[in-house]
Amino acid sequence: MSTLWYQSRGRRIVVAVTSPTTSPTSPPTEHGSTLTTAGLLTLLLGAALPLVDFFIVNVALPAIGADLGANTATLELVIAGYGVTYAVLLVPGGRLGDAYGRKRLFKIGLAAFTVTSLGCGLAANIEVLVAARVAQAAAAALLLPQVLSVIQASTYGEHRSRAMGRYGANAGLSMIAGQLLGGVLVAADIAGLGWRPIFLVNVPIGLLGLLATRSVPESRSRDPLRVDLAGTALLGAALLCLLIPLTEGRALGWPAWTPASLAAVPLLLVALAVTQRRAERSGRVPLLPPTVLRVPSMRRGLAVTSVFFTGFGAFMFVCAVTLQEGLGFGPLGAGLALAPLAFGFFAASLASTRLVSRFGQAVAPAGFMIQLAGLLLLLAVVLPGWPGVTVLYLLPATLLCGVGQGLAVTTLFRLVLSGVPADSAGLGSGVLATTQQAALALGVGTLGSLFAEIAVSVGLREAFGLVIGLQAVLTVLVTVLGRALPDPRGGQEEAASDL
């Protein structure tokens, strides 16, 4: 048993108590389990469901709005409500798996995701759908953290490398499948159900996954971290107080509670910061450990991550609405138009590791610049040709965006975590994932709300041009910020000197 300390401002702070670590070539010691091929495929199937779901829902948004009579602002909650819930519960979900068994939480999460998918598919109105999506996000937060945890606990050496590679490929293929499957299912209008099969398709797949979970080995941490209830509640309250007024305020005529809710956000964030520092000083590990946030690569990288994923969340939402309601593509056409983005993201992600080994930190800014070129090309094609643009004309722009995003995101995550000590990699990954998901949700809530406002008052063409133009500006900003990130080839010297 060993205690992990950080030296910060003259004080030694306990961050985690860890079990003795094994060498990378030693078999895992937790219950002596080894992950079989069947077990890995089961984990990847479970991981694919929420990943596919994120992209499949974007394509179906206009059909959902037309069927349930929902305006654009309320449709934002279908995406943003899911994102906020997932962001807040992701780290607690991982800690529950450490404490009560990762296989057990994987099964619970998969079963809950299956049931909530059925609830989404049967939703009679938009309010029920939003509530079901929130519950679905909570299920995903129980399910997904267990996948990497089981891989880490039950594999080693080359077996672990192959498993992690397949996990990455699974994420990329899920992105592609979501874009195409969403368009196909909505366009097919199976049994007259319209958009509902995008959720109902999860039910038989989820049941199949549950039957296969017997092949997944059980594991748990010897010293699990407690769930930070206060931090989780305060972060969730802050995000909701920001999101709800921004998405619903305009449609409701900005009632008195909307400015009051927005005014509460900084107060809640201050309270969150105080509770996180207090928890860390008392020897507990909070939701967002302040000492981890002071690592230079984390501090700078999270700023880049926040800006980038705010733009990305808005981009996916705005494109889904514009392609169908503005350019008249229909769900299948919209899926085909965005498919090159997914293919480009997947291919660039695979190439990024080799490129970083050769060019280091420069790969992330290069990816941002490629994305910028794609955004500018998209504006140059769509705005002059509106509304007569065809899918074929959009393919080069969406492909460029995907390649740039794939290079930037994969490299960015590596850069952000490069200065975090190895024993704290799990803590750093949790903070990074929480930031990513919160930014995606807030991108829909902020820039998506601006898009809805301009679309109603001026027009869809102008709203699309403004929001994509703003994302181009954000891309320039993250390119500049990205140059301050450390070179991952330089090891952890910077972190060591700063702690």
In short:
The chain is 76% helix and 3% strand. By secondary structure, the chain is mostly helical. Strand 1 and strand 2 form a beta hairpin.
Q: Your description of this structure?
A:
52% of the residues are buried. It is built from 17 helices and two strands. The protein starts with a strand and ends with a helix. Strands 1-2 form a two-stranded antiparallel ribbon. Mean pLDDT is 84; it is low at 1-33 and 491-499. It has three domains: 32-224, MFS general substrate transporter like domains (Growth Hormone, Chain: A); 229-284; 287-499, MFS general substrate transporter like domains (Growth Hormone, Chain: A, Up-down Bundle). Helix content is 76%, strand content 3%. It is mainly α and 499 residues long. The chain crosses the membrane at residues 40-61, 73-93, 105-124, 167-188, 194-213, 225-246, 252-274, 302-323, 329-351, 363-386, 392-417, 438-457, 463-482.
